Amino acid sequence: MISQATIQQILARIDIVEIVGNFVKLKKRGANYLGLCPFHNEKSPSFTVTPSKEIYKCFGCGVSGNAIKFLMEHEKYSYVEALRWLAQRYDVTIEETEVSAEVKQQQQLADSLYIINNFAREYFSNTLFNTDEGQNVGLSYFEERGFTQETIRKFQLGYSLNVWDAFTKAALAKGYNLEYLQKTGLVTIRNEQPGDNYRGRVIFPIHNQSGKVLGFGARILVKNDRAPKYVNSPENEIYVKNRVLYGTYFARHSIDKLNECLLVEGYTDVISLHQAGIENVVASSGTSLTQHQLRLIKKYTNNLTILFDGDNAGVKAALRGLDMAIEEGLNVKLVLIPDKEDPDSYVQKIGADAFRQFIADNKQDFILFKLQISMQDAGTDTTKKSQLVNEIAETIAKIDKTEDFTKQQDYIRQCSQVLKIDEQGLINLVNKFIREKFQKKEQLFTRDQEKNTSPSDDDLSPEAIAAMEAMENGGVVSDNFFNPDERQERELVKILLRFGDKPFSEEDKNTVADYIFHLPYDFESLADNEIVKRILREYKQMYDEDNLPDKKWFLYHADHDVTAMVVQIMEDKEAELSPKWKEEFEIETVYGDNAYLKDTISTTNYLMLRKIRKMIMENQQELERATDFEVQINCMKMHKHLKQLENELTNGLGTVIFR
After folding, report:
1. Which of 25, 411, 529, 552 has the most CB atoms at less than 10 Å from its CB?
2. Strands 364-365 and 158-160
3. Measured distance CA(176)–CA(165) in Å, rounded
4. Which among 494, 46, 75 is positioned nearest to 56, based on CA atoms?
5. pLDDT confidence of residue 214
6. What value does the CA radius of gyration of the chain take, rounded to a whole number of Å?
């Protein structure tokens, strides 16, 4: 765990122009910097970096964030990885909080395995290019596959000599631990003698998202019925097969820009397509997709296109596990390569342009494809058709994100037409599966609560419930659900972050923060949005400790929801301010010298007025329910008092609060 003191040192040194400038060519334009967006293809620059606000925004695709988010999105780092990158960049010594001896030992073991794998990668590459056997056997194989030396070096391919212990001796001579060498799968023990596990094979290093080598795939080149075609690294502290997709490190930027991930089966498929200029491609290495792999894809894009051989085995492989992809919110398409071809051979046969066109022309929607294949299998069998209807309904029920509500409705309509069944009946069946899933999750949650443990990661989302209720109500979803009016709540956050320590009046020493936190209502009760409440709560805690945070504290907050909201708040367009304010406070405002005071009063009065009107409505409801005369009298008195407060606020505000 990185200490808070270290994080503060890093944040104090961040220069967003310098950070983004490492990856994007920026040109100064007034107070901002402009460049071509790295997250989508564009010819005219619309990617803007604003140093004064420490944010970037693309007016083409809409992405925005701070320096840390840029590293996380562009390089696909975790928050901690981004901090470590920045610490190295600014020469900040990382101070870590105390961890248990067990955790420390695991970290040291992981570091050791990475170091060994990197040594092995360099060794195998050197063997491939600089030994006779490597050139005659390994390099010849890669060249026969059509790979150029540039491609071979890019993917860091290698070769292991067909000698019992050539690599083992080299590794031990360097002082690497034999136990760790076995953990990586590079060395095996037979007849009490350590030897090379990958001897006589070409080597495919497997990288993580930041380019570190997790493990290896090793392919035999001579026919041997007693030996497997591929030998892969065993799972260990750094390599877990179901969490890795081959080629992710090389494909991540292209997937981001094209907003589509192509998925193939093997290493050579990935390499051939990359060499042809089709770089948004990764491989599952011949295994069924897992939830972790699907979530890895979703970090880059929501659009997944799977390329499989067109034989029966390829079709069946294409259908395995794809319900999980739907559940993850991915838009899944299938492309079946012609018989007796695979992506590797087919792209070399027809060329890159024709291959791209083939993909574009032959994409099939997964659900409709599954329906088509299943109907062919069912034929006229009523039992099979009934089973098929249930399967399709269950698949559609997995589309449980609110933003996919329309897509779910489209599937119901199309599938009911193809199946020739009543659309409302299919809606009811889909809702049945949603309810069953919700009930199961509720039971798990209750059980976990009884055990005092957290529920599982894949609990049914509130969005799923909302979508289900919307379908039952004729497809109408509340506007408030999609577009909650939080403008004034966010305005309150902006005021605190920009002006919290500024004087509220000339007569006393009170600050804007003093004014807000001494309103006649609890500050949290003025907000409905949970993230706003979280920011207000943390700000108030630091305020009580006499340590007012600035906008940077929340702009680079560890909670990404907080960061996202603050970035949105900072994106607000503001006009140039008067020279006096610019000189004294280095801020911008559209209102002039006392604008922040007017804004503070306007916003807080608006929120108090909203609260009073809620209280009026609740009081009226209580009056309607009341049967006791004394309760009725008290309700009427309360109504009169609340209306008086409402009038006072309204008269004081005029039309300002409704802007």
Report:
1. 411
2. unpaired
3. 14
4. 46
5. 94
6. 31
